[in-house]
Specification:
By secondary structure, the chain is an alpha/beta fold. Helix content is 29%, strand content 25%. The protein has a domain of 282 residues: FAD/NAD(P)-binding domain.
Length: 486
């Protein structure tokens, strides 16, 4: 099939129209009202995760005063928000900042080629009819997230084909799935599982949460009463900023104390669950992980909804290993059999660096695992390329907002100095390691070696600290020995 050359030169191509992509576009349009940009989105709508996931009860796992944009106040009642409300927020932000007119949907990027001679990126993508297109841009900003939309992690469960019921992965939730009065098993203990279980109990006859090992779970009010009080007496934007900073401080303090005194915080987290659960379940068996707090992400449940359904008997929890599937359900290692009509495998995501896009510099393919991340924004020896990534110990958007501000700051510096190219240079003087995101979750460990590495020292060191990044991305000098301009 022939190539259709689209004669549209832009200053910036953003790949992905999810939460981070729309935010990046807003920051860019605010800072450069006269520059041209385009968002290439592989799906037929914006929203990313918050348009893609359709399973019952899908919601945020961070408060929306920090998961929301720093320039756009969150106005809804719930701070721990439903997925549909988050999508509306992203959609309304795109409309307010006139981003929608710059989105090209059903545009799946396959590759990106940098030409040093012309100092330009050529982006190759296909549309919904599989016709191939090209766009040329000065800068590229990847906002594709960190997981595959096309594949999910699915362990090989023994004898799964013998099960007479239906097996469903939350990432590909069937729109017409009937689970009224059905017995359901949810395999998993992470954010998706603890979200699904309370929601499913509203219709199912019974839901069993089957976990291989426990997770730290904390209850948090769905509505931030302090935020609502501030909104009552202060202008909207000021109230939002105060609440945002309050929550940033709270999350960083909690994380710091957890890592400094892990045994103390572990006992506190378990005691909080015990207060919610009473004698309804064996808390030490089902809610006391063997790992330290924040070795894996701590799950939030709004208003203790998971604990409520376990107390009232509409749901139960089993901590055990799966021996095999049977015709009627699942048999676990202890010998117990769990009957089910539907099994939901909340077994995690499949991580994918930069949306699986093939990148080349002057015709030479890039192995992302051989690159080193620079300030969590750029990659070594790749010119004019940025990537949005969030925190694992706090809200995703906190880091993405900082990243987008840094990108705009860097482009302004290039414009002011007359530079066409900016590129971090790895001259081999820094020790490298597999990128540490601060978590030992299975879905991360399975794929992290495919992602860029990090150095042991700044600016190659990946930080999980908002205030250090605030200094390094907002205020530190742009030009240094590691950043090359031409």
């Amino acid at each position: 099939m022939g190539i259709l050359l689209v004669k549209l030169d832009v200053d910036l191509i953003i790949i992905g129209a999810g939460l981070s992509g729309i935010g990046a576009a807003c920051h860019f349009s605010i800072n450069f009202p006269k520059k041209k940009y385009l968002i290439l989105e592989s799906r037929d709508n914006l929203g990313g995760t918050w348009n893609f996931f359709k399973y019952p009860g899908v919601r945020s796992d961070s408060d929306m005063h920090t998961l929301g944009y720093n320039f756009k106040p969150w106005k809804e009642k719930k701070a721990i928000a439903d997925g549909s409300d988050i999508f509306k927020y992203i959609d309304s932000t795109a409309a307010e900042f006139q981003v929608k007119e710059n989105i090209r949907y059903s545009s799946k990027v396959s590759s990106a080629d940098w030409e040093t001679e012309n100092e330009v990126w050529t982006i190759n993508f296909t549309d919904s009819s599989e016709k191939q297109h090209r766009l040329r841009s000065r800068f590229v900003y990847s906002c594709t997230g960190y997981y595959s939309y096309d594949e999910a992690h699915m362990p090989e469960f023994p004898n799964i084909g013998s099960f007479k019921g239906r097996v469903v992965h939350p990432q590909f939730w069937p729109s017409m799935l009937d689970y009224d009065n059905k017995k359901i098993i949810v395999i998993g203990s992470g954010a998706t599982a603890v979200t699904l279980v309370p929601s499913l109990t509203e219709k199912a006859s019974h839901v069993t949460m089957l976990q291989r090992s426990p997770t730290y779970i904390v209850s948090r009010p769905a509505v931030d009463k302090k935020a609502k009080a501030l909104e009552k007496y202060l202008p909207e934007k000021i109230a939002y900023k105060i609440t945002r900073w309050k929550n940033i401080f709270a999350s960083l303090i909690f994380y710091h104390i957890s890592r400094t005194w892990p045994i103390f915080i572990k006992q506190k987290l378990i005691d909080w669950v015990r207060r919610s659960m009473g004698d309804a379940v064996d808390v030490d068996k089902h809610f006391a992980p063997t790992y330290k707090p924040w070795d894996q992400r701590v799950c939030m449940v709004p208003n203790g909804d998971l604990f409520k359904c376990l107390r009232n008997g509409s749901a139960s929890i089993i901590t055990d290993q799966i021996e095999e599937f049977t015709r009627e359900g699942i048999k676990v290692k202890s010998g117990e059999h769990i009957d089910a009509d539907i099994v939901i495998t909340a077994t995690g995501l499949k991580m994918l660096p930069f949306g699986g896009i093939e990148m080349r510099v002057d015709g030479k393919g890039i192995d992302f695992s051989s690159t080193v991340q620079y300030k969590g924004v750029m990659l070594s020896n790749i010119p004019n390329f940025f990537a949005a990534s969030g925190y694992t110990n706090a809200s995703w958007t906190l880091k993405c907002d900082l990243t987008s501000k840094y990108v705009c700051r860097l482009i302004k510096y290039c414009d002011r100095k007359g530079y066409q190219v900016c590129m971090p240079k790895d001259v081999g003087d820094s020790e490298k390691q597999v990128m540490s995101v601060g978590l030992t979750s299975g879905y991360i460990l399975r794929s992290i070696n495919k992602f860029p590495k990090e150095g042991l020292r700044s600016p190659w060191k990946l930080r999980q600290n908002y205030f250090l990044d605030l200094i390094g991305l907002r205020f530190a000098a742009l030009k240094n020995k590691k950043m090359f301009f031409s």
